[in-house]
Write a structure and sequence with these properties.
- Negative regulator of class I heat shock genes (grpE-dnaK-dnaJ and groELS operons). Prevents heat-shock induction of these operons.
- Belongs to the HrcA family.
- One of its GO terms (molecular function) is DNA binding.
- Pfam families: HrcA, WHD_HrcA.
- It comes from Thalassococcus halodurans.
- By secondary structure, this protein is of the alpha+beta class.
- The protein has 3 domains: 83 residues, Winged helix-like DNA-binding domain superfamily/Winged helix DNA-binding domain (Arc Repressor Mutant, subunit A, Orthogonal Bundle); 156 residues, Beta-Lactamase, CATH 3.30.450; 91 residues, Enolase-like, domain 1, CATH 3.30.390.10.
- 47% of the residues lie in helices and 17% in strands.
- The chain is built from 13 helices and 10 strands.
- A 5-stranded antiparallel sheet has the order 7-3-10-9-8. A 3-stranded antiparallel sheet has the order 4-5-6. Strands 1-2 form a two-stranded antiparallel ribbon.
- A hairpin with a 2-residue loop joins strand 4 and strand 5.
- Helix 7 packs antiparallel against helix 13.
- The longest helix has 21 residues.
- The chain is elongated and about 90 Å long.
């Protein structure tokens, strides 16, 4: 099939209007839209038979579908994609929504985790959907690294950041480490770390170790890798995915099939170890992005949509993301400005904490 924008440009006014009305009606009600309904809402007065012919043409193009034996139509994933890209009218942020978000995030927060928990609650509460928040890693430059032996099978790695933040974690060191090898490993890392963030150190570490292997003995080499791997671990709680409002995805009259779909969705979320993939979704473009159905690479499940936006620190670097997930018939025009505003507000709040 041709590119959606190209198809939209080739449509006549009547086809475009029928398509828009079907999609908007479906997004509002979740029900198939029939020709009789459109005869009452179209600006142009045309017969139900003519509308049915137009809908059949749109179905042939892969933009509409006929569920079950219903005479009505619903948009396909391709149709929703074309509507979002070419016909979606993004609303202004509602004053009431803005006030609710401001009220939730405007309170004094003790730490970043508290802020991000509130972000998730605010988004799910305002949108009545499920919210996703990827919290930032601590990305200040490293000032000092130290290894401390606790027992033959336990060691402590301490990170002191240039902004005064301190983190320490216990890990299993390579067998037979000595005070000398631990000092050597720390000296190597401190020389490498000067002025760099942990992410930058991890990126440079492999090449540096290979290049300077002769300058660091095998034991210290293993200790360096073991100690820094603690921060690259999949269980790293310095970066985590917060999900709020799961119950919002189950309506009062939720069908068993819908409940199973939502259960699979969240099982998939909880199994996903590499949550950095969520942030990767936002890095290919600025501002809010919309992923419909199987376009959403984070989830194996088709039949859900994600509206997501990155947030940035004071240096305009993407450090996390916020989003709303729900069925494909989300009210995109309302959700987009809410997600956009929340992402910008989070960025400002985190920047002010520097």
């Amino acid at each position: 099939m041709n590119d959606g924008t190209s198809i939209l440009n080739q449509m006549n006014d009547r086809s475009r209007e029928v398509f828009r009305q079907v999609v908007e009606g479906y997004l509002q009600t979740g029900e198939p839209i029939g020709s009789r309904t459109l005869t009452r809402t179209l600006s142009e007065k045309i017969s139900a038979a003519t509308i049915r012919n137009v809908m059949q043409d749109l179905e042939f193009l892969g933009l509409l579908d006929s569920p079950h034996t219903s005479a009505g139509r619903i948009p396909t994933q391709a149709g929703l994609r074309m509507f979002v890209d070419g016909l979606l009218e993004v609303q202004h942020l509602d004053d009431n929504d803005r006030e609710k978000i401001d009220a939730t995030l405007g309170k004094e927060a003790n730490d970043v985790g508290d802020i991000m928990d509130r972000v998730g609650s605010a988004l799910s509460g305002v949108t009545q959907g499920a919210s996703l928040v990827l919290t930032p890693k601590h990305e200040a430059a490293i000032k000092h690294i130290e290894f401390v032996s606790l027992a033959h099978d336990r060691a402590l790695v301490v990170l002191v950041f240039s902004d005064g933040h301190v983190e320490n974690r216990i890990f299993v060191p390579p067998p037979g480490q000595t005070p000398s090898s631990m000092r050597e490993a720390a000296n190597f890392l401190n020389a490498l770390a000067e002025g760099k963030t942990l992410t930058e150190i991890q990126r440079d570490l492999k090449g540096q170790i290979e290049a300077k292997r002769r300058q660091i003995d095998g034991l210290a080499h293993d200790l360096v890798q073991s100690g820094l791997a603690v921060w690259a671990d999949d269980d790293d709680q310095a970066e985590r995915l917060i999900v709020r409002g799961r119950s919002n995805l189950l309506g009062q009259d939720g069908q068993e099939q819908e409940i199973d779909r939502i259960r699979v969705l969240f099982d998939d979320l909880e199994r996903k170890r590499d949550i950095a993939e969520f942030l990767q979704l936002t890095e290919d473009g600025d501002g809010v992005r919309i992923f419909i159905g199987s376009e959403n690479k984070l989830f194996s499940l088709s039949g859900s949509s994600l509206v997501v936006s990155p947030y940035m620190n004071a240096d305009r670097k993407i450090i996390g993301a916020v989003g709303v997930i729900g069925p494909t018939r989300l009210n995109y025009g309302r959700i987009v400005p809410i997600v956009d505003y929340t992402a910008q507000l989070v960025g400002r709040l985190l920047s002010d904490r520097r």
